[in-house]
Amino acid sequence: MVLHERQELPDFVREHNIDNVTLDIIENALKNIRHEMDRVLVTTAVSPIIREQADEFPLIADRQGRMVVGQFGSPVDTVLENSPYKAEDLKDGDVIALNDPYMMEGSTSHLPDILLVRPIFYEGDHVGYALQWGNLMDVGGKTAGSIPIDARSIYEEGVRMPPVKLYDGGRLNEEVLRFFCHNSRTPRETRADIMAIAAGTAAGAQRVKDICDRFGKETYLEACDALLDRTRTSIINLMRQLIPEGERFEFEDYTDDDGLGNGPIKLKLAMWREGDTLHLDWTGTDAQVPGPVNFLLNHRMFQMFAGVFLISAVDPTILFNDGYSDVIKVNIPEGSVLRPVEPAPLSNRLVVMARLFDVLGAVYAKAIGFNVSGSYGTSPNFVYSGVKKSGEPFQTMEILYGGIPAIPGKDGLDGHSWWPEFLAVPAEYMETYYPMIVEEYAARRDSCGAGQFRGGCGIRKVYRFLANGRITYQDDRHHTYPYGVAGGRPGAPSKKTLIRKSGASVELPSKVSDVPVFEGDRLVFETAGAGGVGDPLERDPEAVARDVRWGLVSREAAGSEYGVVIGEDGSVDAAATESRREQIRSARPELPAFDHGDLPPLEEQRRVIAETRRKFNEWLSHELGAARANGRG
Amino acid sequence: MAYNVAVDVGGTFTDVLIFDQQSGELTEGKVLSTPDDPSRGVVEGIETVCRKVGISFEDLNLLFHGTTVVTNMILTNTGSRVGLLTTKGHEQILLLARAWTPGPLYGWMSLQKPDPPADPTDTVGINERIGPDGGVLVPLDEGEVREAVERLVGRGVESLAIGFLNSYVNPAHERRAREIVREMYPDLSVSISADIGQEYGEYERTLTTVVNTAVQPRTMLYMRNFERSIRERRFGGALSIVRSDGGAMSTEAVAESPIQIALSGPSGGVTGSAYLAREIGIKDILTFDMGGTSTDVSLCLNGETPVRRDIRLGYFQFKSPAVDVHSVGAGGGSIAFVSASGALQVGPASAGADPGPAAYGRGGEEPTVTDANVVLHRIPPGVALGGTLEMDEEAARRAVGKVAERLGMGVEEAAEAILEIVNENMHAALRVVSVERGHDPREFGLVAFGGAGPMHANALGRLIRSHSVIVPPTPGVMSAFGFLSSDIQNEFPETYLRTAEETPAAELRATVERLIAQANEWLDGEGVEEEGKRFDLYADCRYYLQNIQIPCRFELDELTGEDSTFLRERFEEAHRQRYNFELPDSPLEIATVRVVGRGTIRGVSLVESEDGAGADASEAVLRTERVYFGGEWMETPIYDRGRLRPNHTVEGPAVVVQDDTTTVIEPGYRGAVDRFGNILIEEA
């Protein structure tokens, strides 16, 4: 038995022939490399999604392809398995590029994300890999931005690149790049972004060589092993400290729909600890869906997410890496929405990914009672494309942000990014380069989930279009609520309203693609707010009064949700507040641990979702017909 | 009237440096800063050093003042109460703050976001709209402006900021709104965003304007009080305030735009180093300024001070030109600890000045970098920091012992490990400004200063492999030295956003000439003589839609062609050096056109010492002492910096002591004193 376990230990678990100080120096140097790769990419990339929103992630892997430093786990082994190349055939100056998620088991999970893998050589010896991926503006497919909401297979979502050599021994494979970019609606931007990502991996590789120069190759390789080992040990210690053994923790929540009228879609996670192994099991999660919200979840990436949660909550100085991949066991049922079968469509996986983080966070909250947060609002993509009056085609790509959840002791931020280092695109940028006016960009009043600590508000952004074109977006939480925790209330669902120049207005569903818009039309985009934490009646009345003054909470909601009575001059009426709170307290039922909002039974939700989609499709074909008839489709 | 003086106000000390124009002699002094009223410390400091030199205020010609008045107000949010007028629909621009949250994953959990610098309650949206091309989409509702101003003033707002969308293209609405405010309340301080930054990006421009407005009243009050107190002491010369970009300007100009002096202090060390580099003929240098809590590094090419276009202060990032320094949380006070995974880490937490390192004997117990230096005798026993502060070696050993125990090492070994880790962090910072930008540090000298810089300079020079390490004669007051070398300077940018291919050079020329005229007028206002004026012209370029701006310098007479593609070669050379690729098919966008107007005033000049000596420096040896290097105690000579003369050579291991710092020369290295009194450390 003991012998058997020993055999299963990863090769890096052993005594390391490296002194601690050298190891610490190399750890610091590797962390710095990662930031450097980021900077190279962000500064040189062209498309607004990388340039203004910084959507890209670098990593350094060891010779076996295991991530030594990075954030999302390394897919090198699966990439090579799916390629005609063997690790030993690779040479200095090679760069493998691919964007097909099925060829890297979901390490990047939809076609607009391209991954570049550069083997690193030192004095002729292979010492590791530098990887970087970035989100391209467009890789073809049926809809501008390559995130159609109604694709039924991945073939409709864009050009698929299997692992190919973008650089062969330092020489750019111009043909393959030309071929790939030719399939994009934004070939120039796509080319520039790929070059920028390649430059990022080159920066990473060069720095690893510099470390080998300084400390010697053998020391560097030993350090990689020691760093994996060190993180593994730390994670085992954190697990033992924090997660009680033998208890099973479960949580489930829903994504709206798949864009074709199927939903809501359940994600269910169970977690338990068995000795030094943490089990995470997605059994009970709904089956894959016809529409493109399937999220092909890479095992190793999910192990990373699970570990990062522990690390961030307890000791953020621990290095993230693949060292602990054998102690976190993950089960993702084949054919589920988290492990769909090729060629299931994947483009709009962001909505399921967001729910995955909610569910993971809630399971941890139950297990360790630490940093229990409400649910995040929404962070949809939004694309507007068409032809400018000058005849020049255009295409925007923007990510919008919702409310950040409350955590114990702190309110959520209003309209901020859940993802690190992302930035909202300035209105002045959008207006300068694209035919639109951003009429309004504000926190959305009363969208925040009430609580002793309130969730963040979603945003309200109003666009006026100056050219005929099409819009596509992928939002969620239209039919479900971002939950609140420990008496905290859920955030408001998302909402989109299209107002025609004529004044006619229509509420659009959770996700749409290729809706025709015309000069003078307006889109009111409202993202979801976030869930609150704790009993709203315990919230400091002064904080509620400030929220009212700042336009985040209405006077009415202050009274009904928080029991805070605000006087004419904007100040708190203490006596009236006391009695209002008493009155609410005595009349209400016991507060739930998780408040998912007032939802009809599941069957009824399914019916409403299908009906909404059916009506929308009718409306859309009518609009498209009318546009064609007017000669402006 | 033959003396110039520079004053640098820091958190703990106010540094004063007086330059004697006849003899070329520099006299330095330090007094404690007086945070309650910084000008008191400044006046006391000047008096103290004047006494040392044997002169009075009347003998002073130029006075350069670097101040943290604005910095502190921003960091502590103690500026005046600002009302903000925005375009209707964008009232919550400062609250939404471009949605940024820090890394890594779940970084939002630990973000402590300050309230917006203009309270949303004091923010009013106005019905008006300028389009991206400058056209008026919605005319300014003047009635609404009046009503809003009335209401805000009634509510107690002390000053007003106006930030409308696209005002950088057409400031007409902002200007008209300001006119209305001035008609209504002639004494109310008011700024418009088009004056603060003529660049796109409404959040940064509005934020910068609001903060500028918030700090204005108190900055002006400070300037008035300060000027009055020096005039009372019969100072008859010219007073210049040091800007974040290393230039200097009058107090009147500061009143217009106090945000320009937000990083007044840190700029001096870099300008001073760049000046030094020019004078001693090592034109490409890295600067290394290590203080108590942080280290600032920069790279100067061809003896020029590098300037960036934005600054970060605490949570906020502003649009304002500043010397391009990269900071890391590594300094003498940085605390060493062992993380849960057993890794030794140093900083960014710092023991600060109070309680300070354990060795200060003020109750600090955490092991710091300074403690490690004390344990290893890099700060030799019996040497008092700043001439007064005795080091408590036992306390330092106790503190470092805590880390040593966790690591299973001896105290000296742990101390050396602490230095190696902190050096690695500073090394990474030096790489950011050099290697990452395509420069080979082996072609650079490393100028080291700050209280702790010379102690770590040799190690950093070894790690980054710079060809020599330069420790100037007054490393503790390098900022003040830099102030003395400043030019009167201001920058006039304009967002351009046109491609070089489609811009006839004559049109670019018209813009440039207009900016030169503005710069010229400003220099006239600052009293700069014709012959001292200089105009540097830049086109900040990028590939169409890229997020960088690479400054491309040009001359007026180059603007002759049918287009402006003469910039392309310049841009691509820089782009290739930095990123290793180019995009020949991509149009070249001129993002910003910029004119920097300078007026030279020569506040300082280096004078060669005539007091040369032979190589033998033994006359400067004070004693020998055991100092720990590379795992062993070595008997090491301790030199007195004051007795070192040109041509003296100091073989490592050696420690050179002076009032405010010690310079460490490692075994295998040699320090040579040059004709200006700098120590140049090179491999022996």
From TrEMBL, chain A:
The lineage of its organism: Bacteria, Bacillati, Actinomycetota, Rubrobacteria, Rubrobacterales. Residues 19-536 form the Hydantoinase B/oxoprolinase domain. GO terms for biological process: glutathione metabolic process. InterPro entries: Hydantoinase_B, Oxoprolinase-like. GO terms for cellular component: cytosol. One of its GO terms (molecular function) is 5-oxoprolinase (ATP-hydrolyzing) activity. This is Hydantoinase B/oxoprolinase family protein. It holds the Pfam family Hydantoinase_B.
From TrEMBL, chain B:
It comes from Rubrobacter taiwanensis. Residues 503-676 form the Acetophenone carboxylase-like C-terminal domain. Transmembrane segments: none annotated. GO terms for cellular component: cytosol. GO terms for biological process: glutathione metabolic process. Residues 205-491 form the Hydantoinase A/oxoprolinase domain. This is Hydantoinase/oxoprolinase family protein. GO terms for molecular function: 5-oxoprolinase (ATP-hydrolyzing) activity. Residues 5-184 form the Hydantoinase/oxoprolinase N-terminal domain. The lineage of its organism: Bacteria, Bacillati, Actinomycetota, Rubrobacteria, Rubrobacterales.
